[in-house]
Each structure stands twice: as C-alpha cells, then as structure tokens.
Amino acid sequence: METFRPPVAINFSCSNLADTWNRWTQKLKNYLIASEKDKKPDGVKIAILLNLLGDEGTDIFNTFKSENRKSIEKFDDVLEMFTNYCIPRRNVVFERFKFFSCSQQEGQQVDNYLTELKTLASTCDFGDQEEGLIRDRVVLGIRDMSLQERLLRESDLTLKKAAEFLRASEASKHQIESVKSASKVHEIQKNRDKNSKGTASYTKNSASDTVFNCQKCGKEHKKLKCPAYGKICSKCKRKNHFAAVCKTVKKNYRSVNNLENDNSSNSGMNLFIDSVTEQVNNDMLIVNSLDSMWLKKIDVENNMIEFKLDTGAEINVLPLSVHKMLDLKEGFWQVPLDKDSAELCTFNSPFGRYKFNRLPFGICSAPEVFQKKNQKLFGDIKGVEIYFDDLIIAGKNKEEHDKILVEVLERAKENNIKFNPNKFQFRIEEVKYMGLLVSKDGIKADPSHVKAINEIEKSTSKNDIKRLLGMVNFLSKFIPNVSAVTSPLRVLLKKDIEFQWNHEQETSFEEIKRLISSTPVLKVFNDSLPITIQCDSSKDGLGAYLLQEGHPVSFASRSLTDCEKNYAQIEKELLAIVFSFEKYHNLVLLIESDHQPLTSIVQKPIGSQMYLADTLSRAGMKETGGDDPEMLNVVHSVSKLLPMSESRFKQFQKAT
User: What's the CATH code of the domain at 591?
Assistant: First the structure.
C-alpha cells in the first residue's frame, strides 16, 4: 500500500498562528483523503489529529475536554475548537485595511501579487464584490505606471483580463532583457578636433567585463593592471596616465553607433565656410568676409566708429525704366556637390543605393546655399537683384540695360550657368517680381491678388477670417489704416468671442475690397527728397503714411491693445507719432498731425527763447513757500467732519 507523508506538527507559539493553522488543516484534510483515513470513525480521526499535533496540541485538547465533555466525540467539533483557538475573532475593518494597503513590491511577480491579494480578500467578507475589488486593487497597486495607464483605458476590464495582460507584459520584459544581454554594442568615438588624424577608439564590452579599454594608457587590459599607474605624463607632468591620452587640451567627441570612414587618416585638408583666413605674426588672425563691404569706419570726435552703410544703396534697382527677368534652369541642380556632401545625400531605392551629384530639392539648407551661390556670382553687378532662381535686371535706358545683360550672360557662361529660355522677359517696362508690379513709376499690387480678394466670399468661420487677413496683410503696404479697417474682423478671432457676422463685419469686409480695388502706386523712395510723415489714430488703430512730394511711398499701421484703447485721444495721437518714429527710425522726417492741442504741446518754444522763465528757473530763490492758511482750514474741516473710520482716515492721511 502506498504511503503518504503526513503534515509536520504545528508550532502554536508562531507569530502568524491563524494563517499557519489554515494551511495546516488543509494539509491534514488532503492527507486523510489520500490515505483513505477520512472514512475512519471520528474517534480514530481524533487520535490521528492529536498524534500529529504533538504534546502541545494534546495539552490544548485537554483544556477543551475539561470545559465541554459533550463535544469531544466528533472530529469536526474538535477541529472547530482548535480553529477557534488559533483564529481569534477577526476585525473586518482591519482586514480590509490590509487588503487596500497591499501594493506590488519591487521584484514581486504578478502571480505572487495576485495570490497575496486573494488571500487577504478571503478574510474581508466582500461577498459578491470580491472579484471586482481584487481587480481594482491590482490596477491601483502595480508598480509600472505605464501598465496602470493602459489598464485604466479598458472600459470592460475584468480580473481575468487584467491578470493575462500583466503576465504577458512581464514575460515580454524578461524576453527583451534576455535579448539585450545577449547582444554586443560597439561604441565608436570620433575625434572632431581639427588637428586629429581621423582615428577612432573602439570599446569592446565582454560578457565578464574583465577586459576594458583604459583611458589612462589607451590600451586594453584587466582591472588593476594599468601600466600607466604611477607614471608621470610628459605633457602635463601629472601622474597615472600617458601623454598619448592626456586630456589637458579640451577635445570634442561625438558618440555614434556606426561609422564608415574611407578617408585617409593622413589627410591634411582643412575646410572653411565663406571666409578666407590669413596668419599674421602667429598671434593675429584676419578674417575677410562678405560683411566687410557693408561697414565703414568714420572719425567721430577723434574716435573711429564702425558704421553700417545704407542697406539699400547696393540692392536698390529702382526707379529704372527697362527691365528683364531671367530664370535659372533646373534651379538647385546647377550647384554641384563635393564628394562628402554627395555621400550624405545617398538614398535607397528598389534598384539599389544612389547619391546626388547635384544639390537636391528638399534639403533644409538648399535654398540658402543656392541663394548664397547666386549672390556670389551676380551680386556685385550693378542693376541686378537675385531672389533664389529669379534674376531681375534693370537699367535707366536700353543701352544700360543691354550692357548689364551682356555682363550677366558672360558671368553665367564662365560658371556654366544655364537659363530657362521659356521664361525670358526682355526689355519690358513693367515686371512682375515677388508678387508685385515694378516699373519706373513705382510699385503697385498685382492685379491677380486684387482680383482674388474682390472675388472672395463672405467668411463663415474663424479660419476664413485668418485666410482673408493673411491676403490683406500682404497688400497692407498699399492700404492706409488697414489695422483700423480690419479691426471688426480681428475681434472674431478672439477665443472668448463667438463667431457672428454682423453689420460691422460686413462693412469692414466691403471697405477692404474697396481699398484694395483702388490701391495707389507707391513711389520709389528717393533719399535726396525731403520726407514727410502723416500720422493719425482712431479708436482701434494707428496709421502712418510716408510721403515725398505729396506722393505715398509707404503705409504703416497697427492695432491698439486693450490697454491703449483706454487712452485719451490726445494720448492716442501722441502714440501715433511715437509709432511713426519707431517704424521709420532710420530716416530724418517731418511729422504732420491734425490734432491742434497736441501740436501746441509739442511745438512749444525752446527754453533759450523764453527769457524770463528760463532765467528764473535757473536762479530761483532758496526759500520754500509755506502752506496756504485757508487751505489748512479746509483740510481740518474735512478731517473732522467727514464720517469715516479710523483705518480709512489713516489711509487718506498716508496718501496725502
């Protein structure tokens, strides 16, 4: 007959007797069933129980026997007596406190955490809600916050789903850690110092970490076996490292995961960007750049000050009568790439890897590089202006125009630059350039833009308002007081304002169309003519007009802030003058204003012409005037007769 191992005698003096007794009784019942002794009479089973409990259990049973003789004949009654002895009356509140305070410990597996929660829940009398409460505690008690967030997204989460999800997540983490530990990573450090010879140091990480790349000697060896220990560096005279790895001179390093460098380590090529360097006396470095042509040193009271020249002197091609437009064929592709840049522009395709030998479209810096190349090639030719692939040529007459054109074509031939013949505009009096029409009379808006705004329909949303204002802002230089006109439309863009198209918006919309339809021709600025600025203010905005000989040169405007709208009208008028000064700060100008009180204030006589007042202000008496007796009586009456509290009186006293 097969024998089964009975449970070991229980220790009744253990700290957690209740849990120990529950587990022991479970083992006892399994033993009785397995050995088929559960069918024995109660007397036999009581004897087996006492035999397994030992002397301490027998002594406790004798106390039961002396207290109640009728209950010692049945096995279940004896077992219940021991249960009552080992498990005192439970405090349900405290048991639930332990349950709701249970959280997953660091390193604790999901299954162990679930078992612990179920064990605690068995003594909490949750009833039908036990499974739901265990699920809630699992979600709120796990350590991984990302897993907690994903579980909270589930609307129909059950305890079974939560347990399966957590087990799968735990298994995947173990698998990822195994993959990471099996892989080897080689770190390459590339020295970017200009004097380096292209060498790179490789760090090998072995599984046992017994050999490593030492930074003191530059070699690989085991720990505590460095040959540089105790040696003196011949470069910095310090200990414990060699001169080959001395860090006295700061170097720049960059860590990358992979590097393929087919350049020769002995290459002495030094690259530079848009500068020519010249060594002088080994201590001074002279840099000649494009910015030098814009600067000029002028003697001001025996001090040489560097001034920037007129920024429009070299690029202004107006007002001229004959124009020509040229367009570079295929744009960026006319710029060749060097070997290194071409390799950086390698792309993959189903037919293999290819690289661009010409500057490709889509590179972030391509437009700036292209503009800079064209500026270097054609920027020094008078009468030529470049905007990316468009060249505008302007001359006072046909002869000057043709002379400039020949010079441009010769320069293009020397540098193998090709133009698009389909976009040639030859000897035209008016040219469309950057969305504007340029002629000898000045600058005016493109009729296609005016037509687009005139045909636009009434706005039905805030996005439509933004689209309309964007088009209007492009033509704002031709529209006087555009900020004041568009103010009712801009109100609708505020977050706390509901979109409602009312009479004010309709009036503003129609006024914009009218002003754009009648946009004036802006005269080209002439620095030899006097400048006049007319400025004005309204309840919503400020406006300024730059005039020369009565013809408009430029319009400027801006809206008022909520604070500025509360200004008095005279303050708004002065604010318009300040705005004009800020807008045209680099010009010497004359301000015209229609506000007479402000004119009287601003145009007061200077102090040297106010003889008496100027003399008295500079040679005043040293005596100070006393208080007016009548005013003292008034103050006394107010302080005594006005009904106010003591604290309020102190406030007035402190303020006055």
Answer: 3.10.20.370
